[in-house]
């Protein structure tokens, strides 16, 4: 089986700074791959080259076998590459259910010509998603009044409404309390595995990384210096020297 996401020889420089140098990796369906490294290692630059916000200087990004370099962010999203946890993606005055319905509408929009109609309310679908993330009891509340962790769960439901086969999550638990972080990522992991979604995430909280990732790759100054299972990466002396020991 070929990987959902395949990255080969990715390069990006800003002026004289080599932000990403010859990075290659792959993510399979239902797999959670964590991309870690110190601040400035090149993690966000990598992400932005995968979602179309940044053009690589060199390299190939294949999603389901197709080279997506050069496509716009919206085109890549339409192919089935989702991003989670963008606070700005929710409407504060709309209810939790309405926000998920919007996401379902937006997904259906790309299938409109196939379905031949666009007038459904998606109430049942929205409630099914809210049930999956444990937010059905708050469906009527406006998103603007939610606790931060609850809002993150709504955003996860909205990302899943798009039925992505690849989810990109850049620091999904930023701003959350430590205990909430593991719980949120556990939920995301469980749903992603059940739906065979490939997940690539960056994360500063090592408890989250080591408890949730199937595999970990480590960036340092733009280069991949280690990769493997959590146990392998934890035991890698390079990683301990440049990252975990710091
Ligand atoms: P990380 O997400 O791992 O903290 P980044 O990908 O944000 O790292 O940054 C990698 C390197 O590239 C850093 O040295 C950073 O200063 C530099 N960099 C990132 N984006 C830009 C940009 N738009 N212009 C110039 N330099 C950048
Ligand atoms: Mg970053």
From TrEMBL:
InterPro entries linked to this entry: AAA+_ATPase, ABC_AA/LPS_Transport, ABC_transporter-like_ATP-bd, ABC_transporter-like_CS, BCA_ABC_TP_C, P-loop_NTPase
Keyword terms: ATP-binding, Nucleotide-binding, Transport
Annotated SMART domains: AAA
Pfam families: ABC_tran (PF00005), BCA_ABC_TP_C (PF12399)
Transmembrane segments: none
GO biological process: D-alanine transmembrane transport; L-alanine transport; L-isoleucine import across plasma membrane; L-valine import across plasma membrane
Statement: the UniProt record of this protein carries the keyword ATP-binding: yes
Single GO cellular component term: plasma membrane
Gene Ontology MF, one: ATP hydrolysis activity
Keyword ATP-binding: yes
Superkingdom as given in the UniProt entry: Bacteria
Every ABC transporter domain range: 5-246
Signal sequence segment: none
Similarity field: Belongs to the ABC transporter superfamily.
Protein name in the entry: ABC transporter ATP-binding protein
């Amino acid at each position: 089986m070929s990987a959902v996401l395949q990255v080969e020889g990715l390069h990006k420089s800003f002026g004289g700074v080599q932000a990403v140098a010859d990075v290659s990796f792959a993510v399979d369906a239902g797999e959670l791959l964590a991309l870690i490294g110190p601040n400035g290692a090149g993690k966000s630059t990598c992400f932005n080259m995968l979602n179309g916000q940044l053009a690589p200087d060199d390299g190939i990004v294949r999603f389901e076998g197709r080279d997506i370099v050069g496509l716009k962010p919206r085109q890549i999203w339409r192919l089935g590459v989702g991003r989670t946890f963008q606070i700005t993606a929710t409407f504060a005055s709309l209810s939790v259910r309405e926000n998920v319905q919007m996401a379902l509408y937006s997904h259906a929009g790309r299938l409109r010509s196939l379905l031949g109609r666009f007038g459904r309310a998606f109430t049942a679908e929205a409630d099914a998603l809210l049930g999956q993330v444990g937010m059905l009891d708050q469906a009527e509340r406006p998103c603007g009044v939610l606790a931060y962790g609850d809002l993150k769960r709504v955003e996860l439901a909205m990302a899943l409404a798009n039925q992505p086969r690849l989810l990109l999550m850049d620091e999904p638990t930023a701003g959350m309390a430590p205990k909430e972080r593991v719980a949120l990522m556990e939920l995301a992991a469980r749903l992603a595995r059940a739906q065979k979604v490939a997940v690539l995430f960056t994360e500063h909280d090592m408890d989250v990384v080591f408890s949730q990732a199937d595999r970990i790759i480590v960036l340092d100054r733009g280069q991949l210096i280690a990769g493997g299972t959590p146990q392998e990466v934890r035991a890698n002396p390079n990683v301990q020297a440049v990252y975990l020991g710091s």
